[in-house]
Write a structure and sequence with these properties.
Blueprint lengths: L1 H4 L7 E5 H7 L9 E6 L6 E5 H6 L2 E6 L2 E2 L9 E3 L12 E7 L6 H4 L4 E2 L5 E2 L8 E6 L11 E9 L9 E2 L8 E2 L1 E2 L9 E8 L1
Antiparallel strand pairs: 1-4, 2-3, 2-7, 4-5, 4-6, 8-9, 10-11, 11-15, 12-13, 14-15
């Protein structure tokens, strides 16, 4: 479901808290309300991160899943901002800047805008809102016969822990609570499952 419902992943990152780096550099985190992160990729990707997010649990990572970052994942450093859309996790991090207002860079002004129901575009949205996806059975998977199946999926929210997931197998006419599988962590993918007899 990566290309039909949005690309996502869940990894264990190793690094230093961004708050520690800002403190060590003497950054004024009261007047400076935003951090600009710039990548060393060909496009020089830049993203504005709100200071409250930067001081929360953001890290500058050098490791991923127990090994050094790989080049395709941002080696030697990448910004990791839990709960924020992955496009703001700037790879190949080369520069950080603190300012008192959003930077309005090309990447934020022209790309990654949210289309609102009234037709307007919303800029500077970074929170990964609550969402879920069924991973099995899904996509082109063919069920071989009627009978018992376990429906599984992933739920996530950039605003905290998932506390419950309801699943419908009849187009939303009825809903059943799913089981949440551990670990259930804040701002992280949570696997869920529900029994289903087709």
């Amino acid at each position: 479901v990566q290309y039909t419902h949005g690309m996502l992943s869940c990894c264990e990152f190793t690094g230093v808290p961004l708050s520690t780096l800002l403190e060590d550099c003497g950054a004024d985190t009261k007047k400076g309300r935003y951090v600009l992160a710039e990548g060393a990729d060909g496009s020089g990707l830049t993203r504005t991160i709100a200071m409250d997010r930067a001081l929360d649990d953001a890290i500058v990572a050098w490791g991923m899943n127990g090994e050094m970052l790989r080049p395709e994942n941002g080696y030697p450093l990448r910004l990791v901002v839990p709960g924020v859309q992955g496009v703001s996790w700037v790879k190949w991090l080369r520069r950080l800047e603190v300012g008192d207002q959003p930077y309005g860079t090309k990447d934020e002004s022209l790309h990654y805008l949210d289309l609102m129901p009234d037709g307007r575009h919303r800029q500077y949205t970074s929170i990964q809102e609550c969402k879920s996806v069924i991973t099995t059975p899904s996509g082109g998977q063919v069920l071989l016969d009627r009978g018992y199946y376990t429906v599984t999926g992933l739920a996530w929210s950039g605003r905290g822990r998932i506390t419950g997931v309801d699943v419908s197998v009849d187009g939303g006419r009825s809903w059943r609570p799913a089981r949440l599988e551990s670990p259930v962590l804040p701002k992280c993918l949570t696997r869920f499952s529900v029994d289903w007899v087709w």
